[in-house]
Structure formats: C-alpha cells, structure tokens
TrEMBL record:
The chain crosses the membrane at residues 6-22, 29-47. InterPro entries: DUF2933 (IPR021682). This is DUF2933 domain-containing protein. It holds the Pfam family DUF2933. Keywords: Membrane, Transmembrane, Transmembrane helix. It comes from Rhizobium tibeticum. It comes from the Bacteria.
Length: 62
C-alpha cells in the first residue's frame, strides 16, 4: 500500500475514535466549549491576515 492509503486509513481511524470519545464524554466536551470560544477570539485577531483592508496605499489618485 502507498502512503496515501495509510494516511487515509489513519485519518478514518482518528475520526472514529474522536466520535466515540465525544459520545462518551459529551458533558465534559460541552463544559470546555466556552473556554475554546474565548480562546478562539484572540487567536483570530492574531492570525487572520490583514490583506482585506483595501485602500491603505496612500497614493494620490488624481
């Protein structure tokens, strides 16, 4: 088998394990959710990229 097959098999196994872990520990996972949301806010501000702010070139457009 080639490496792509191994990667797909490992990813599939990981998704299955994650599903069963969340199914058994759903209350714990939901208890952590607000903290993950709060952590996502500053991470979004740090890593979101600043390419979408058009008009910052300060050239005279006459």
């Amino acid at each position: 088998m080639n490496s792509r097959t191994w990667i797909l098999m490992a990813a599939s196994l990981g998704i299955i394990v994650l599903f069963f872990m969340l199914r058994e520990h759903w209350a714990h996972a939901l208890g952590v959710a607000p903290y993950l949301l709060l952590l996502a806010c500053p991470l979004m501000h740090l890593f979101h990229g600043h390419g979408g702010h058009g008009g910052h070139d300060h050239k005279d457009g006459a």
